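Mods, move this if it's the wrong board.
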Amino acid sequence: MVPPDGPTRLTVSLMNQTGFLSKSIPLLVLSLFFVLKAAGGLGQTDEMPPSNSLQPLFELDFHHHVPGLYTLDQLKKDWGPGAVDRVRGVAEGRVEIAQEVKEANRFLRVHLAAGQWGADDGGAQWRTAFPRRDEAVGSYRVRFAPDFPFMRGGKLPGQAGGTSPTGCIGPPSGRDGFSARIMWRAGGRAVQYVYHPRQPEPCGQDFPWSQGFVPGDWHRVRTRVALNRPDRNDGRIESWLDDRLVLDQTGLIFRTTPEIGLDHFLVAVFFGGKGPQWAPPIATFVDLDDFVIWGR
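Not the wrong board. Structure tokens:
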């Protein structure tokens, strides 16, 4: 599985015959405009990373599992030995393999307890490691329960590196690590939630997406993180929702040393923030499937 290729390129040859060009060029130009627009050849709004520039690092779906509770043994086999570090919610029975009622598709379902927030009591969290890279694209499908109460917000998976700072511990130094998860916010709004040396507050910084989530619908999310050169502020985050570019944030600093790179993926699904104001009033769930990570 590879990211979609770049825009289709079309070449048009016209025969220069008497009277043909003067009458036909306006119609041909207009037709070519709409063909190119439909093929993605005009502008860079929705362009995905070209397939020849990235190498596959990790791929996982859940079709090979039998529906039922997801176990630590399955977690280790699926996500690698390092996934057993910082695991929350699996041993507690909040993660299961579920199946569509009318389809054979199987996927991961994370249950979120009523009145709870954070990964310790109300969701799930773990991580998977991959070889260190300066650029990575993480992709997966996500679906919120049809009656999902978004409340103030909660966490979704995303890339990280080094110590992967989280939990409102203050800005990282640039020599320790960073994280770039996704968050849902009130009403289904979406943001990139980033811990980086220039964040203005102890908690991570929100970079809002131009579109959000619809409860009950499967969404495909993709995030490309390109780290800055250690002496430059040229880091970049691009995110796509259902193949539409919803964030392009440039001018970022993730690190001040080349020893820090993208080297793991944080799988986090929980409400919060901290405190009861983040907690859902009802038990609910989030579904995940088709994880792919590319890098270079």
